[in-house]
Amino acid sequence: MTTERRKYSGDGEDADRVYFIDSGTCSVLGADNDPVDEMEAGQYFGEYAVLSGEKRLATVVSRGH
C-alpha cells in the first residue's frame, strides 16, 4: 500500500480526460483543501468537464491503494 498523494484533477483546470479508479481510494477536496467526499475502486470522475467543455469543478487526490 502506498500513502503518496497524487493530484489527478484540479478545480478550475482544463479537462482532457476522464479518470477511472481501478484500486485504492481518492479524496474530493473542497475550496479549503479539506476532504468533502471519498471515492473508491469502480468509480470515476472528470466526465462532466470533458463532456461539457467547462473547467474542472473539484480537486481529486489519491489516498493510496
Task: Produce a short descriptive summary.
The chain has one helix at 47-52; strands at 7-9, 19-20, 25-29, 35-40, 44-45, 59-62. It has 65 residues and is mainly β.
Describe the structure.
This protein has 65 residues and is mainly β. The protein has one domain (7-62): Jelly Rolls (Sandwich). Helix content is 9%, strand content 34%. The chain has one helix at 47-52, and strands spanning 7-9, 19-20, 25-29, 35-40, 44-45, 59-62. The chain starts with 6 loop residues before the first strand and ends with a strand.
Please describe the topology of this protein.
Layout: E1 7-9, E2 19-20, E3 25-29, E4 35-40, E5 44-45, H1 47-52, E6 59-62
Antiparallel strand pairs: 1-6, 2-5, 3-4, 3-6
- Total domains: 1
Overall pLDDT metric: 89
Number of β-strand runs: 6
CATH topology: Jelly Rolls
CATH class: Mainly Beta
The order of strands across the largest sheet is 1-6-3-4
Q: Would you tell me the structural class of the helices and strands?
A: mainly beta
Percent of residues in beta strands:
25-35%
Q: What does the largest sheet look like?
A: 4 strands, antiparallel
Write out the CATH superfamily name: Jelly Rolls
Radius of gyration: 11 Å
Overall, the morphology is globular
Q: Give the topology string: H per helix, E per strand.
A: EEEEEHE
The number of helical elements comes to 1
